[in-house]
Design goal:
Chain A is an alpha/beta fold and 477 residues long. Chain A has 14 helices and 17 strands. In chain A, strand 13 and strand 14 form a beta hairpin. In chain B, strand 3 and strand 4 form a beta hairpin. Classes of the chains: A alpha/beta (477), B mainly alpha (893).
Amino acid sequence: MTRRDALTRLGTGFGMLGLSNLMAGPASIGEPRAPHFAPRAKHVIFLFLNGGPSQVDTFDPKPELTRFHGKQVPDEFFKTSKVTKDLNHSTLLGSPFTFKKYGQSGIEVSSLFPKTAECIDDICVIRSMHTDLPAHPQAITQMNSGRLIAGFPSMGSWVTYGLGTENRNLPGFIAMCPGTPNVGPELWSSGFLPTSFQGTYVPLDESDPEKMIRHLTNRSMSSADQRKQLDLVAALDRLDMARRGADPNLEGRIQAMETAFRMQTEALDAFDVGREPAAMRARYGVPDRPPETATKIRSATRDGDFARGCLVARRLVERGVRMVQLYFGEDIPWDSHHDILVHRNLARQADRPIAALIQDLKASGLLKETLIVVGGEFGRTPSVETTGRINVQNGRNHNSRGFTYLLAGGGVKGGLAYGATDEFGFAAVEKPVHLHDLHATVLHALGLDHKRLTYRHSGRDYRLTDVAGNVVTDILA
Amino acid sequence: MRLISLGLAALTAGPAFAADETASREFFESRVRPVFARNCSACHSAGNKMAGLDMSTRDGLLKGGQSGAAVIPGKPEDSLIVRLIAHRDEKRKMPMGQAKLDDARIADIARWIQEGAWFPEPVQASAKKKYAITADQRAFWAFQPVRKQEPPVVKNTAWSKTAIDRFLMAKIEARRVVAAKPADKRTLLRRAYYDLTGLPPSAADVEAFERDAAPDAFDKVVDRLLQSPSYGERWARYWLDVARYSDDRLESEVDAPYPNGFRYRDWVIQALNDDMPYDKFVKAQIAGDQMGDSLRYAAGLGFYALRPDTQDDRVDVTGRAFLGLTTGCAQCHDHKFDPIPTTDYYALLGVFTSTKDGEYPLAPEAVVKEYKERQKAVDDKKAQIRDLLHAQATQLSQALALQTARYARAARLVLAPGLPESQRRTLDAVMADGRYDKETLQRWVKYLSDMPKDHPHLKDWTSASFDADAFQERVLAVLAERKSVDEENAYRRAAAKKQKGAAPEVVSLKTDSFYLWRDLFFNDFYGNQFKQEDDGLLYYGPNRGFYESDGTVERLLDGFWKEHLVRLREELASVKARLPAPYPFLHTIEDSGKLKREKVRVSGSDDNLGEEVPRRFLTILSNGEPFAKGSGRAELADAIASPGNPLTARVMLNRIWQYHFGAGIVRTPSDFGFMGDRPSHPELLDYLAARFVESGWSMKAMHREIMLSAAYRAGSERLAANESLDPDNRLFWRSGVRRLDAEALRDSLLAVSGELDFTPGGFASPLSEETNRRRAVYGFVSRRKTDSTLALFDFPNPNATSEKRPLTITPPQQLYFLNGGFVANRAQSLAERSAQGGGAAPERIARLYRLVFGRAPSAEEARLGAVFTLAGPARWAPYAQALLSSNEFLFVN
């Protein structure tokens, strides 16, 4: 008899009470659950480049932009483009980085991502992403939950709600960041889904697993003794629930306690990149010792933190974690308003680990069942930013109308450049992919129908894609 | 079908409808517009036409949206809007995501359409783009005056003890939900203790309450708890969440930028314990220096003085905290949903920019004077050092620029591009050739070796034909160019400042020149952005903003200048040594000598100034009169803390309700606007808001009124029948099961182990110190790094105002119970405490249950305990730890 059976038979499980919203879906993260149809992928690694990386400096080459560098947007452009608003006085800024063709596919990638470029035949480059608002908090929230406002379940929560986890010794949904991304813990919140689907946050500015996940080991008790102690807690909690009546919070905690117990053995190993050979760490760009930083600077990223995150992400999917959400850095590091050259250092920190992650998963065969998603909350304008408090005119402003996402593995076509922005890179014009479409496609790759993955709350069935979203079938292998 | 015929029945049964416009207008404005404003306008307005539908004009309704006409005058049955609000279309039910409208409302809409769908002509704005608050916006519920409400008549009078209950019961009955049975006495007592003090009751408290059969037994408990100093410690923390209180700032050069910040925290605690009227409490925080008894009220100004530094949030926090309005949204554009134009934002900003940070000394004048004089001596000395370094660094960048060619050549000798390794020379060997500064050469070597292949000026540095002299010319030219750009921009900004409203077109270096300038003459002037870049920082320009400098400049100073610097530093040390202990003071704000009227920043840009706005209150809540006294803070405070303000009492009352019931009547406590939640019980909210004002704004009176209701005393049972009708318990038919928040958890662990230090007030020290056993509210609150245990249990980020705490349940939290040192130590103390008085295992188990849960163990619990502790005396601490880790300890019903 499992503990859950026991609860039900004791008359305290939810089944007995017919709690409609809990019956609608699994109440807890428990065992893996069958998808709606045959899945292409079983895991997701979402590498979130928060702040908004520039598409025209990375994966969306624009020769016209270079040609018109320093000039105003030509009048002809406005005749065909839908995006005339707020472009009137903008001056185009050619990319300071050079593009080159890579791989069999010959997809062009800039000098910012030379290593990732070598994997281009495994990558689907969506060049026609667009979203609704060019403001960080709303855009980041929307990219994570499909909604512009807080309070809704994140994608990782939906995914674990739909599929459960394959490894009960680790949380099914893990969110990592060196520090906290803009908006914060709301990004991995389970919203109105049961709390067991909430992301477990792990700080990446620590490298010692015992600091990444605090209180991971018990120094005074053997595991067997601790098991006995935990059994006692569980027995007391059952008695307590019999008295109070079933409640998702009480149930959720009992499960969280069990997961915590099992995490002790597994997490110590999973989060310890020190167990990787030195050469492997070097491939990702993880320094042996994290560099010291003198003062705390907002949005400053430290060498190796994101790299370590990628390496940990690999170790987590190897252990069956369903969804890893990795944020690039504190707040919004890719927000290069002043100087697009800042992208160089950011890309230097991002390029190597992204490439290493794709290569490693490919070598082990896990790439077939892992979908890697790379991108930010929006892109950047092809024009130079001239307003606000900037002092140097070499940066780009927010642009939600056209930007690039990378997908790799998990049944997506590699070596494919999908969709296009206009000749300068302002807006998606060819085969536009809204973020709802991206969400729908990610769920589809996991074998989940985004229209059927619903949760009844406040008298209405909610879903990740709200009332929108179309699966981009063209990019599926 | 049924509903619509019901609507038409009402129509035919009603009085004949006068066809004249006055009656039409009256009906529309009183019965239709409020429904649109409350339920529809957020998504279907001129500015936000979801599904193509604009409901702000008659044309918009007739034209309709993607699905065709919304309204067909005279034909309610055929009008789409009626179909959708009557939920006759299974797929599209309006208002989206909200409960169905009352039948009476639907009937009103149907009647209005039947009568021809009269709609006022759109107001033609005389001046183009002039902001106008629409009638819909004015009709929004939150801006309506608080109306004193009579509790409704209900059937279940046995359950309904108080007026609050009747308001709740009316809806419970209307929705056919069953109200939960009352909680048992022990549960109720524990709930009341945690609610008011954040601490568990002792076993003796429980027993006394269980013994007290008097009908007012609970009343007495509530009164007693409200008198406890722990009450203020509990409720102050809620306000401190709203006030984004912290003992530090994110970006500060010193560890404790607010050394007296704790005095604001202590003031809030004291104000609550004294039951300071809420209107005074509000006024003190906005204008406590202008309230007469400033010694009593000025500490409240810490609300603004202890603000975060990442952005000026004073207008935003004023709106959210006191008014439940997201005024901050109007900083860059008129508020998208609420009637808050940008001009309102800048009208309020002017109030705050006409104030400055101040301090209110709590020491004799002479002490303050002496300290300030000595502090000034320190500051002067620091300034001398900074000026010296700045001047030297500027000179140095010029000097180094003139040696560019020499160093570039020398670095090429070390790197020997294109040549076999054998031909490379060591740095020391090259050094020996000529007079080079070693570090500068090292930087050049690193710079060139890391050189990107696409660098606009140095991509050919490896080629044999590289012309170092030409490169140096380029460097010098860029330096000169930079200087002229800076001068030009300074001129343009100054000119724009004189010409009101003109946005200066700023010039900048050409991109290629900029790269070079940045590589070689990077300095802090351009902010933190470039600290990202560590490749190619060659010459530091003016020092990096710290008077100590980073050593780059000093290294190159010699002889006289170096001695001078050393002397200045010695003098600094000596004046520092003479600095007496800081005197105590309050962090406050005060009117500055120069009053400002802010100009609108178009699109939030400082370079694009619009009209100048006088300091005044929000348009929607006032007559628009400019403030006349000083900065206007006192007038602002009066306008907010006024019984006539429709928001202030409602917002605070809702916060109080939220902390008693786990959720507010409005579930977005700091947003009562369009995008916020609608009140589940608007009449109850008004009833309580009116009572709040009548009671003299007494928060304690409100606690009492709420806690003595039957609803507050309800049990937490879940009733299957209710789950589908009201899964979120918006009707408050039961009480919830709530996890302890971070502070209550920590305090409870210390309380049951007998280690809690009740010392009130004073300096904040980190909670992570094992010796810190004080209540969590007294811990150091950091904006840089939240205490990890507080963060684990959802303590809010103090960089922004926070309206409620998510109470999450995660595996890492459970690791804290399983392995955390703090819990283990409390368990150890608890185990030792349970050994006092001796006795056998059953006695000890019973003692532990009394200490931890305030009750005796059940037979099964006692048996489990006996089995677990049988293994030996070493099991007592793990046993105590298990009790502390149990759900019974962590959750309150």
